[in-house]
Amino acid sequence: MDRFMNVLPYRIHLSRKSSVTDTAPKELIAENVIRERVTELAAKISEDYADSGELVLVGVLKGAFIFLADLSRELTIPRSIEFIAVSSYGTGSKSGAVRLVLDVRGDIAGRHVLIVEDIVDTGHTLKYLIGMLKSHKPASVRTCTLLHKAEQAEVEVDIDYIGFSIGDEWVVGYGLDYAEQNRTLPYIGCVKPTD
Ligand code: PRP
Q: What is d(CA 157, CA 180) in angstroms, rounded to the nearest whole number?
């Protein structure tokens, strides 16, 4: 059996009681729930990579910056940090063709790589990133996302670690934005996009 087993995602229900004001985005996943889940993911990743040497965490800018910061500090294994950035061309709030705008700085050849995403929606970005990073000849490439919109998938992509499975809400906070707003909210909230 593959030792890199999926961590089963939590399913989130919108009925969760909100603890924020009416003007703030409606709370979907509370700060303490995120913290507990990040700790669980970090424990699983630490276990899976216990005998693999240093793990290279590749955070996908911008949205993954807070998740990566918290996840990386909970790991108990040797790790290093890289960042990557892409832009996607699509219509409205959906992503389409993906283009690399910032590559990893360090040499990842022969090393174990874990891509850290804030959200996987259609899957186009992650599929592109897996292929792009594999071209650097790493020992392995695995994937971790805080949020997964499974019902929105347009392409098949392997996700090894999933924090939470969500519906088709537009989510903000904990690194995620809508029109660059609300990235620094401590919780995950929902907004209604206007486009
Ligand atoms: C988000 C997220 C992923 C991508 C997922 O990035 O960080 O990279 O969308 O979408 P997909 O599965 O449909 O390809 P976004 O374009 O919002 O940029 P940002 O992280 O800089 O906010």
A: 27
- Phi-psi label, residue 123: left if phi above 0, alpha if psi -120 to 50, beta otherwise: left
Q: For ligand 1, what atom is nearest to the CA of residue 125? A: 14
User: Is the C-beta atom of 183 inside 6 A of ligand 1?
Assistant: no
pTM: 0.88
Residue range 110-128, pLDDT digits in tens: 999 999 999 999 999 999 9
pLDDT tops 70 at residue 18: no
**Probe residue for ligand 1, chosen from 68, 93, 95 as the CB with the greatest number of ligand atoms within 8 Å:** 95
Which atom of ligand 1 lies at the shortest distance from residue 127's CA? 14
